[in-house]
């Protein structure tokens, strides 16, 4: 009997990776004179991974990694106007309107009537709060955990609030690495809702045979699945 | 009878503003050919305030504002090597060792034996977690709230956990604007511990006549004060 449902936010409830891709395209176009797109993307991903331990997840760190990569590939000769465009790209990302994914609003509203809902998301603190506010879904969540990383301990904590246990909780998200595997490890159920666009960092192998692992193609199918658990 | 003590972190438990000042000095030196120090600092503060609604508080947004200001004052002609130094300054800040303030560790350890302690801090999520871990004080806190801003609602929430009420709680911090005034508004007690270096944003008038407002010069005096409340 499931009492609690954890929802990932980016690319589970609303579009996110698509906005990163747009900025990456801008980045690649701006630096086209210095390196080809594949090389630029490789260097950018390297910078993001190198900086993750300092910057954490989110748009601000991404912009700083784009600027650093622009300096790297141009040997510091990048034009100031290009740096400014990268800053502008980040500002645009921090203000982009919310695009809810198909079925997300209905699923959240329906399940809020019968279950305790917790939003569990990583990224920039203020940006995640802004997106939740603009989504119009804030009132349906009983708790919001904006975390620096998603580990088994994250889900252990999130699903051990008064009256909850991991075994009676389910985590719903698009990232095998961040949403599914650590939630299963914490003893919770997990529902994978794949998204067309997934950041390479978030990919992982599908978990082996686990009765607590489930997969659906759209959040529209979530209430029906939850009813069977 | 006080049951709960909220602690601010930056410039209350450990040095913070000093590291921002060092980076600002680097910024002013790097751009000395373009503008005088006062003008540079004025422009930087304007950029920080303009961007606060997008970036929130913390080092990553500060670095982005430094880069933006460097572009502004040079009309995009800033050298790439200067932009790189600003990024490096941010990376240094994100790795600086923790300098606990005088009396902080003893006060936290002593009060943890008799009270529930909550850390309430704003800034970059991962950076604040890192500093708490490195401070060695993490185990003494019963809760950690890393928040995007400090409003009366922040303290209302923090001090309304099970078994707590704002009227039996006290907030301890160096910022009149962020720690003291909103905590008093939420109905809590507040202890101001001024720090020599305070960011202009955090300044405010001392609250008027309030029995719940207190001031001490060092955290070493905190246990004695709490005992009288």
Secondary structure elements and their pairing?
The structure is a homodimer of 229-residue chains.
Chain A: E1 4-7, H1 17-30, H2 37-55, H3 59-73, H4 80-95, H5 104-112, E2 116-122, H6 125-135, E3 143-147, H7 152-158, E4 169-173, H8 176-185, E5 189-192, E6 213-215, H9 222-228
Parallel strand pairs in A: 1-2, 1-4, 2-3, 4-5, 5-6
Helix pairs in contact in A: 1-4, 2-3, 3-4, 7-8
Q: CATH superfamily of the largest domain in chain A, called what? A: HAD superfamily/HAD-like
Beginning-to-end CA distance, first to last residue of chain A: 6 Å
Instruction: Quickly give the structural class of chain A.
Output: alpha/beta
Provide the CATH topology of the largest domain in chain A. Answer: Rossmann fold
Tally of helical segments of chain A: 9
The proportion of residues in beta strands of chain A is: 5-15%
Q: Low-confidence stretches of chain A at least 5 residues in length (pLDDT < 50)? A: none
CATH architecture heading of the largest domain in chain A: 3-Layer(aba) Sandwich
Helix content of chain A: 40-55%
Oligomer: homodimer
Query: What sort of overall outline of chain A do the alpha carbons produce when their principal axes are compared?
Result: elongated
The most extensive interface between chains reads:
A-B, 36 and 36 residues
One letter per element, helices H and strands E, the order of chain A comes to EHHHHHEHEHEHEEH
**What's the alpha carbon Rg of chain A, rounded to whole Å?**
19 Å
Number of domains of chain A: 2
Question: What is the class of the largest domain in chain A in the CATH system?
Answer: Alpha Beta
Residue-averaged pLDDT of chain A: 96
Strand order of the largest sheet of chain A: 3-2-1-4-5-6
Q: How would a textbook summarize the main sheet of chain A?
A: 6 strands, parallel
